[in-house]
From TrEMBL:
Identification of the protein by name: EamA domain-containing protein
PANTHER family: TRANSMEMBRANE PROTEIN 42
Compartments (UniProt record): Membrane
Keyword list, A-Z: Membrane, Transmembrane, Transmembrane helix
Organism the protein comes from: Vitis vinifera (Grape)
Gene3D superfamilies: 1.10.3730.20
Transmembrane parts of this sequence: 32-51, 63-82, 88-105
Leader peptide range in chain numbering: none
Tagged with keyword Ribosomal protein: no
Bilayer disposition of the protein: Multi-pass membrane protein
SUPFAM superfamilies reported for this sequence: Multidrug resistance efflux transporter EmrE
Length: 116
């Protein structure tokens, strides 16, 4: 069960990163054909990864992990690729999101359902 859950988190993180890559590709390329092509490819890949994460995780765990990965990778890409400023509040919020995902990953949703 633990291996299935860790694969679920890997799928959810991959979905978040692919969503960020879709946004990044829309900003990086000037050619409309390349831009829309990459956005479609990354979004289709993101949805495939997200659906696979839902097979191993609860919808809450998959969604929050996907969001966190998207938020962190988008913010870091903005910082490194587009030289956007990241204030202290962004890092504080990112830390709280990571802590929240960690708490959710340790939650025992399946065990609570079986004891009811």
């Amino acid at each position: 069960m633990e291996g299935k859950k860790s694969r679920g988190y890997a799928w959810a993180i991959s979905a978040g990163v692919n969503a960020a890559l879709a946004a990044i590709s829309a900003k990086l390329f000037s050619s409309q054909v390349i831009k829309y092509g990459l956005v479609i490819i990354f979004n289709v890949t993101m949805w495939g990864c997200y659906v696979n994460s839902l097979k191993a995780l609860s919808s809450l765990q998959a969604t929050v992990t996907n969001f966190a990965a998207n938020f962190l990778s988008s913010g870091l890409a903005g910082f490194f690729l587009f030289e956007e400023a990241l204030p202290f509040q962004w890092f504080a919020g990112a830390l709280l999101i990571v802590i929240g995902v960690f708490i959710l990953s340790k939650s025992s949703i399946e065990r609570k359902a079986s004891t009811d």
